[in-house]
Amino acid sequence: MRAYAGFEQGPIRPPSEAESLLIRVNRNCPWNRCTFCSLYKKRKFSIRPPEEVIRDIDCIHHFIKRIAAGEPLQSLVGNRQEVPAAWSWYCSGMESVFLQDADALTYRPEHLVRVLVHLKERFPEVKRITCYARSASLARIPDAALKELAAAGLNRIHVGMETGSDKLLKLVRKGVTKEEQIVAGLKVKGAGLELSEYFLAGLGGTEFSREHAEESAEVINRINPDFIRFRTLHILEGQDLFPSNDMDFRFAPDLVLAREILTFLEGLGGITSSVRSDHGYNLFQELNCDLPGCRERMAAVPRRFLELEPEQRMYFQVGKRTGHLLRLDQLKETGRIAAVRDICLRNGVTPENVDARMHELMQERMRRGIYG
Ligand code: SF4
Questions:
Q1: Which domains are assigned to the chain?
Q2: Helix (H, G, I), strand (E, B), or coil: what is residue 158?
Q3: pTM over 0.90
Q4: Which residue among 26, 40, 197 has the greatest number of ligand 1 atoms within 8 angstroms of its CB, and so is best to mutate?
Q5: What single string gives the DSSP state of each residue in 25-54?
Q6: Helix, strand, or coil (residue 352)
Q7: From ligand 1's centre to the CA of 160, what distance in Å?
Q8: Helices 178-190 and 209-223 meet at what angle, rounded to 10?
Q9: Is the pLDDT of residue 2 over 80?
């Protein structure tokens, strides 16, 4: 076991946890084999002993006390991460905590309970504690252990469903089946925890788009998660998404993506989930509402995109990817459209080449490490 090296945080958290304190219980991903995910590829998984995690919590508690007492920021000396972490959490109200990294449910439940209890003792005002977990880990954990975690203060689990299609789950090496995803989701809800399920638009490329949408809607309908969150596939050209398949992966152009999202939304039924499109890469960020009442209003978004004249559709595709447009409604705003038209003219973007050009743009951003 290596010696305590000080407070540490991992690389990511869901956008909905932007204001949360990040507490790292394990490093990287215990699975690390999903073909679409390169986040932890060169990093080794390890579990941090609960004593280390508790020291991290105490360290944040120490700095929060000093910040609350009015000490100037310059006088607070810590390692690179702990003072900014304490300061930004204090400024955002100290209401939520996110346990990192990829799969907190690989942590021994009794150790996680220790961490949760300590967090609650140190920060009784915290209202929400959440983490990522793999469906495979959730499917294995006993119901009683999950209930104990809920009783100790864990409120919500974020699960990367990605797809409900068994064929795709296997192709992208997600390490879980459709049925296991359903068992895991129902288990989380049965333990009284909130559940966020992520749908990864574009994962099936052109070939499996329809199956991806239909099977994913079926999984969601059987679970009825509290949240359905949209993500969009972004991988670098050359990344082998289907290594066990002879067929090359073909990126879904926006028309295919819009049809896929429409099929997914039309397939949802009999559920009360809140839908959130909370990532800048998503083509449609206006998909935010609570089911069942809003399904038609949401489906109208991709439907409208599909019915646009080619030039208008191109303006939206370019405007969305360049930050000039956030919603389809903004196609009416002449100032914004003038700026987008100018970009198209200067760069030779036409309705015929817009998908290829947007693909190039997104690839360039990924190479530069610009996400969102
Ligand atoms: S389980 Fe999550 S973090 Fe791990 S490789 Fe798959 S997508 Fe990436």
A1: 1-132 (no CATH), 157-307 (3.30.750.200), 309-372 (no CATH)
A2: strand
A3: yes
A4: 40
A5: SEES-SS---TT--TTTTS--EEPPHHHHH
A6: coil
A7: 8
A8: 30
A9: no
